């Protein structure tokens, strides 16, 4: 665990040092669990959003995008269940006075059991070497099986207790497992209580006439209330989807793990409207499509897994998370949910307006079922960034810090470096920058020895460095260096654009899906 914590600390400090993420209003000592995306972070975030939007909206002729307002009529949140049921189970430690999410304490306990399984696997792999069969080991090793059984039983019980709102049993489980406060080590807990996560605000000129509003805790409702508007104006036929990206707000009491759980965050959601009865087939389809999107970035299949929900929301008939191996273990990155007709039926009931689709083939109207895919943009940012940050041992006994971001997402695609600050080299380098900047984000750097400049760009995640030297003056060729392999090749100046484009073009990456 200590190693994971060290790695995570490196991720956080690297994000600040290289202009990716700053603490919000840091000069006033910051605001807990609120972060600003810095100059490089804003670019990386934009590129992830665009990679999702292109795959989801542009490449699907039956999915369109909207951008709904953050403020919504308050009855929206009554209809959606957020006013009555959008709660977290919280528990306080009486000695440290620290507050925790009860379910997270139990899940962290299970994560430690999973870490023990990983340890057993590593030990066995070392012992058996080449002949090690991981699948067989996991299925037959008694110690591993005992760990798995224990972890599954704990999560099953937690899911059941939360579903039945049996908060006393959640507390009993914490006590039985002897879970201690991570800060103080004390096991002196209060009862578990429910806490609503919505931020309230007011709309109106005077206190008397003001209307109570909420900042939206999710973007999905903006899609549901616009279902008929989009369907009619877009003449959409079922099945079709509506996608949107945007800010959501949750008053997380236990916000932690950097940008993993924040109070202001961004979601990328798509609600797919389907004929009742077809939900299983669409659920399987979207699970596969979404996993393929993640894998297209080349981050490694071993870092992803599906986690099917034991505890389903009352309106869902199937739910699965795509979990990613963050520096603090496997955690939810994206949810795929079969939501039945709950949302549209609820809005019909509360608004008194019909939200139905007339199916010409069947010659009847019905409330469509919904299949949802929902991913946290900030979590995706953290997944990409934390996985990319690597320390490499080089042949000459030195190390380099390199941010191996997928080139398609990298904030800066190439850095142009004149070898020296004289002999007309800076002028030539600037000319190259001016040519390339129409198509790519390009950096120009002339300070320090060229080796140090390479290191700086490696740590910044820039896929290419292009060096302009004296030979360039003679034959118009430059040296292009690849970040991941550090290989250098000599190419003509007018070939540079094509070389970069091949590596960073979204088309090249999205065809892998």
Structure description:
The protein is α+β, with helices and mostly antiparallel strands and 513 residues long. It folds into three domains: 43-72 and 212-393, BirA Bifunctional Protein, domain 2; 87-196, no CATH class; 412-510, Rossmann fold (3-Layer(aba) Sandwich). It contains 18 helices and 23 strands. Strands 3-9-10-16-13-12-11 form a seven-stranded mixed sheet. A hairpin with a 2-residue loop joins strand 12 and strand 13 (329-340). The longest helix is centred in the first third of the chain and has 27 residues, at 102-128. The two termini are 34 Å apart. The model has no long low-confidence stretch (mean pLDDT 91).
What is the CATH class of the largest domain?
Alpha Beta
Q: How far is the first residue's CA from the last residue's CA?
A: 34 Å
How many beta-strand segments? 23
The CATH topology of the largest domain corresponds to: BirA Bifunctional Protein, domain 2
State the major sheet. Answer: 7 strands, mixed
Structure annotation, total helices: 18
Going across the major beta sheet, what is the strand order?
Answer: 3-9-10-16-13-12-11
When the domains are counted, the total is 3
In the CATH hierarchy, what is the superfamily of the largest domain? Bira Bifunctional Protein, Domain 2
